[in-house]
Amino acid sequence: MLVSKERGRLAEAVSIVDMDAQELRAMPITDMECPNCGFNEAYWWESQAREDEESGTLFFKCKRCGHVWREKM
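Structure (tokenized):
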């Protein structure tokens, strides 16, 4: 617990979590060259648009610069 100097009473500690960073840590990483900066590691995820019959799309996000790009499967 933290003591508030202004009012002299106990205040609850609050944890602030960066949700974007937390989500990225849970994502898989692959060796993929970023077309923006040339770094060789990227987070990746798969998404399928519209119908089940269409092939999915792989999305990548560079670990260094944050650039996002995609590749059709």
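The first strand starts at residue 2 and ends at 3. Residues 1 and 50 are 50 Å apart (CA to CA).
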